[in-house]
């Protein structure tokens, strides 16, 4: 039996409205609210290069790519990447070409604090970010800073990284340096990018640095410490800087949507949601705080069966629950795709080995029939975005949401109609949720330009601008999607059929 959810998705994928056999035409041109802001996003290791320049020290991605180069799909690294360390003025020029309201980028901790600690602040690192921020502000482009986008100083990793509870203080010290130096001009702060990817992929598996592969244990230690570090940075901003600097601070979570495979899997899909992004959203955005009850119960029960004297999921004390709850002014959301979930007897075989998926006892997968991008995870299911935004609204009392990433990968090329189609469908799904009351305030495309896509190196391209990695200048050329995105920003309208009549990029006056 197929559930309503599945039926709906198949129907929408066929382009048939649920009312009958008609192509969706109701929303050919849709308006964004006047106050809505548009941007684009990047992250330090993925674009900056200058990996050992002007006093920057080694981070975990430098270490991984230098010691195990071919763990990366094309054996590449971020030593030069897009060379934004030198080409930031061109980056700002692209922001102006597109007409961005804001630009989301991250700070490199080891560029600012080469010893990892605030005993020595690297003036050249501070200067680089000052230059970038000032160049953006010259043209009214609002900076949105992510403090941590995956490039932990290597030395901190050697001391356990996110599995060491002292990281709460290390991160707080670093955050304070950032508020102190940039907070006079930066009004949007994001503490962490995608905790799930940091902890599950980096500590539980081998799919991100530091590739610890300590399933069902290290990833949960990481989760608690990361949430506490986030909350500490939030409280520092709130208590020491908010009044004088007048900005907002939040966290960015990655969240997929999960359909049940059949009606019998509805509970399983809801539980996967709690494990996957509820793990980070529940402690911060729910009224009760703490890890989701289903995680606490399941992991405690499995741990006992496996002979552990206590749950592998660390506990929060009542004071810690209060400290983390409410510690975000907005819900930063990175969303790309959707999965289907099933649960059956075949999943009961791994009981003796601690693992995240064994703890949740459910299996997410994607349909091979879904349209897809170059990245294995990137299936095109816009209805999932609508459902996700609806769920966030309903579960967490309609928090302000910024879409801090959404985008589509190809293998390169300037005519990227698939990317354009993806953006249109996902923006339209977002507007559907907003029509029903979701408080979405802004949207950032991932990414303004191609960049180092972690384990996939430069093989998967997410850019509105193509980057030529063969040229020493790392030449950036607008793709067709850049012209379409620009038109959306200029008109504040989503026109499903607009065709750019030029491939020459210009800067509109007044921006
Ligand atoms: C999420 C991450 O934040 C970003 O670094 C990555 O490149 C994109 N997803 C695309 O995979």
TrEMBL record:
Keywords: Glycoprotein, Glycosidase, Hydrolase, Signal. It holds the Pfam family Glyco_hydro_1. Belongs to the glycosyl hydrolase 1 family. The lineage of its organism: Eukaryota, Metazoa, Ecdysozoa, Arthropoda, Hexapoda. It comes from Papilio machaon (Old World swallowtail butterfly). Homodimer. InterPro entries: GH, GH_1_N_CS, Glyco_hydro_1. It comes from the Eukaryota. One of its GO terms (biological process) is carbohydrate metabolic process. Residues 1-19 form the signal peptide. GO terms for molecular function: beta-glucosidase activity. This is Myrosinase 1.
